[in-house]
Amino acid sequence: MSFADDLLARLLEDVDALVRRQAEADRLIASSSAAHLVQELAGQARNRPWRLDPIPFVLEADEFDRLADAVAERLRGFEELLADLYGPRRVVRDGVVPAEALASSSRYRLGSVGSPAPRRWLSTYAVDVVRLADGTWRIVQDFTDTPTGVGYALLDRLVMARVAGEVLGDHRAGDLASISGFPAEIRHALVATTDAPSPRVVLFTGGVDDPAYVEHAALARQLGFNLVERADLVVRRSRLWLRTLGGLDPIDVVYRRVDDGALDPVEVLARSHGGVPGLLAAVGEGGVAVANAHGAGVVEDEKLAGYWPDAVEALVGHRPPLARLVDGEELDARAVLHDGQPGRAATVLRLHAVAGADGITVMTGGNGRVLGPGDDDPRHPRAHVAKDVWVMVGHHRTPVIVAPHLPQVDLAMSVPTRAADALYSMGRASERAEGIARTARVIAGRRQQDPSLVTLADGRWARRMAAALRATREPDDHEVLATGERPAAELHRELAAAVRRLGEQIGVLVAEAASVGEFMSGTSSRVLNRLAKLPRTLAAGRGPIDVLDDVLEQLAALAGLWAESTVRGPAWWFGDLGRRLERGRVVLALVDACAVDVPAGVEPDAADSASLDVLLASNESLVAYRRRHRSDVELGPALELLLDDEDNPRSMASCWARIGAAVEALGWADGRRFVADHDGIRPSVATLDELAELIDATWFATPVDPVAMRGEVIG
Amino acid sequence: MTARAGRTETARAYRVRHETRYHYSRPMTDGYTVAYLLPRPTPYQDVERAEVAVEPVPDERSERVDPFGNRVLQIGVHRTHDELALIAESEVVIEPPTVTDPGPSCLEAAAVARHLRGGEALTVRPFLGESPYVRPAALGEALVAFRDEHVDPTMPVVEAARRLCHAIYEQFTFDAGFTDVSTPLAKVLAGRRGVCQDFAHLAAAVLRSLGLAARYVSGYLETSPPPGQPRTLGADVSHAWCSVWVPGLGWLDFDPTNDRLPVDRHVTVAWGRDYGDVSPARGVVIGPPTRQRLTVAVDVEPLPLVDLR
Question: Is the dihedral of CA A285, A286, A289, A294 positive or negative?
Fold first, then answer.
């Protein structure tokens, strides 16, 4: 019995343990990133979390070595093929690849023909393979454009590593080949695409809407690269630049995870207007390297794939190893856990390789994807069940982990402007959400405790509370419409509206946060994950007070992580600026709504007193008030505590001081002047809005979206 | 006005001015443009002078040659600008070929074309297949019916091209209001109307469906004013026609819009598989939301020739 069979037999002895591990894996994967939740929030479930089969796909060393050699050989062959197809085109001249078929391919980039050849066409490569029932391996498809999966393999392993020791036993746990050194190999390969010393590399993603965004974010974090989107990049003087808070930063290498058809809207074959205008011209001038090179995707064209074996043979002397899978071949089915029961299914393995200065490295692992019932096309498994791939290295090969050589670049000001914008918006959204949630929570709680409040003083309290909810919900809408409703009904309606708006604000918050995950601590994504699920609970209408408490708890956790676990660079200060600005607006709006018509200098009546009570509690200042004054709430001291007391972190004065600290830390001259001009005057909502406009105009107003120029109609 | 040297009595010389102006309702911060405005030399055309002036003066400007041998201008403007002007001026001498040999049959020509090797595999065979604007298979029965009505594969290639050229001229109405740059050929075929780029695409589609190599040629046409009237400056237009590859003869240009085979008053700028490969100017701008206006003025002026025979 082979080791793999033996291991499977042992795993299947305890199905309960497998089920338990799968549940744990579900939890870990769900909390690994908030990106897929954004898409769920938006109702597009393209990126639904995958499940991990708790039974790994095990490869013994000799079988893996044979596969790895084949993968490396295919990569070598395709590298030569691409160099020829975009260079001398020998295989086209000789009729091995028909010129007409090549020219008609939507994946062949005519514009790259004759351009200066890149140092490498393929820096990364992946291939899907399957094992047949007789043990031979077949190719399903090659990936040469933007090979995907390394990040998922690492995430899968992170989860499975927890069970490795448990099932392998101490004596063999060390034989499981590590894959944690692979990102360093990717980094080496990318650096090898340029002559620049200490090259600056970015990972170019399509953004949170990209189905593989989870992987892009995870990889960028591991590689230590900036995760950039189209709007972050601009071409000037035949070079590529990153728009940062500190100005334009040059970029040497683009690790692209964007299809080559969407790289540059000026390129003739690019249908979309995404991409970075001028990027390919800059590549042609040698100002920046793109990996994989533009045009590498032609290898993936199914219509041309049939010509490749002969073409590669013509170029390197032998055909690429491993034959393609043919319809009707019987796949090898192995144990899987299906709905909590052991079953059997075939698995498609994605293997990864990188080509760097020192040759080709194949990852000692990969992503397995289980073919579910009815999955007749192994290119598109529908089951969404992943399987970790374990390579048992035995004692004959020790995995070498190469220490990463990070370019020594100070990233302090290298914050993409878009990321700063997102952090600023996220800060504002989280304070908005908190303002709505706390106000709604306090008012709902008071009403529950004392239902007679709503009819008190002809509904004066209830009307003020409805206005307070409206003010936190619609801070930009100062118009109050007389509805003719009874105060109790109005309050009831406003509470429901506040809860709805809270759900939307959480959506905004999670969406902004998902695009800047790399600036937040790892724990933040777990918090965001919980938070992202709450709007649905809110919508379900379950006891709003409990859910509001949950929301407040998660928002507090997020604020705590932001304050305690995030390095205070420019990005942090932008986030903080957003928070303080919005908190100030919430305080002012609530004072306006709750304290309106409350007479000063006299003891408030029951309705006024209850209003001031809510005002303080909504701003988390009630306890401070009571400890300080030990009396019923009065207007003057309450306003003093909320507006002018710098020691109260919830006060307008404290927010203003933090805003001053932020503009100081950012070294922003106009901001400093603005703060100085308004010093000593209690800021109004108008002042804060003016500052917000100044922030937008100074930092975030540069248009970045390309628009196509019209074409002349010929005739 | 400088006199130009021609080689035969059919030689003609022209000065072409092609002015393309983009106007934006609000200023743009960046603009990236690729232009096919510099005429290329051909076996029947000498380019004496060709230049493109750009306003405002671009921050980046480079020229390259594309895989088909066309001259491509790339420019980048990275300052605030509400107008971009590309003013191309050139002087060329053309000597239209005379066609006496009808060439082999379409069937034979197709067999030769698809077996070409070496350099001709690179210059001819890419024009055999589908391209984004010319997809014969997608046109289905409508294209086959039109083709079979006028040509059959046993005809000599030149004869087939002449009939096709004439059929498009006779049966299709020139209608500038009917199409824009992205009108599908199916609509042109069904409506029996279009503009010259559509007719060039249609001719290419018919020829490619016969297995022949056909390319799209972009350039200009000399237009004569009505008798007794002076020429109106800027009243000419950019033009497009089709070219078919004939074994033994090479590329033969014909103009279905004007029923000319071979072309004789045509200045060639560039060729490609279709409009998309060689549109005069394309690109993107970055800036606030804007309305853009495009104005084009073309002037093809005949120049006197010195007879050097």
Answer: positive
Token readout for A446 is 């008071």
Angle of CA points B294, B297, B301, to nearest 5° = 165
Give the separation between CA B33 and CA B282, rounded to whole angstroms.
Answer: 6
Which residues of chain A fall below pLDDT 50?
A: 34-35, 39-47, 270, 395-396, 398-411
Average per-residue pLDDT for chain A: 87
C-alpha A252 chain-centroid distance: 23
The H or E element that residue A595 is part of is none
CA dihedral of B189, B193, B195, B200, whole degrees rounded to 10: 30
Q: What is the mean pLDDT of residues B237-254?
A: 95
The shortest C-alpha distance from A657 to chain B (Å) reads 34
Helix segments in A621-684, DSSP class H: 622-629, 635-639, 652-665, 669-677
Fill in the amino acid letter for A81. Answer: L
Is there a contact between A100 and B257 if contact means CB atoms under 8 Å apart?
no
Question: Radius of gyration over alpha carbons of chain B, in Å?
Answer: 20
φ, ψ of residue B85 in degrees (nearest 5): -120, 135
Distance CA A457, CA A611 (A): 12
Residue type, position A72, single letter:
A
Chain A nearest CA to B130, separation (Å): 5
Instruction: Mark yes or no for CB contact B285/A707 under 8 Å.
Output: yes
As given in the structure block, the two tokens for residue A342 are 């052991």
Asked if A104 and B180 come within 8 Å (Cβ–Cβ), the reply is no
Contacts of A706 in chain B (CB under 8 A): 32, 284-286
Alpha helices in B133-251 (DSSP H): 136-150, 157-171, 185-191, 196-209
Which pTM was predicted? 0.87
Is B196 in Cβ contact with A712 (below 8 Å)? no
Q: How many CB pairs under 8 A join A and B?
A: 165
CA nearest B79 in A: which residue? A236
For residues A441 and A449, give the distance between their C-alpha atoms in angstroms, rounded to a whole number: 12
> What's the rounded Cα separation, in Å, for the pair A72 and A49?
31
Contact: B218, A714; criterion CB under 8 Å: yes
Is 0.85 exceeded by the ipTM? yes
Contact B129 A101 (CB under 8 A): yes
Asked if B59 and A237 come within 8 Å (Cβ–Cβ), the reply is yes
Q: What is the pLDDT of residue A460?
A: 93
- A199-254 pLDDT tens trace: 999 999 998 888 888 888 888 888 888 899 998 999 998 899 999 888 899 999 99
Task: Round to whole Å and give the CA distance between B59 and A282.
Answer: 14
Three-state secondary structure call for residue A486: coil
SS3 of B91, please?
strand
CB < 8 Å to A97, chain B: none
Cβ proximity of A423 and A662 under 8 Å: no
A637 near A473, Cβ under 8 Å?
no
- The secondary structure of chain B in percent helix, strand, coil, rounded to multiples of 5, reads 25, 40, 35
Alpha carbon of A408: minimum distance to chain B alpha carbons (Å): 30
Residue A377, CA atoms < 13 Å, CB-side half-sphere:
4
Which pLDDT score is estimated for B232?
A: 67
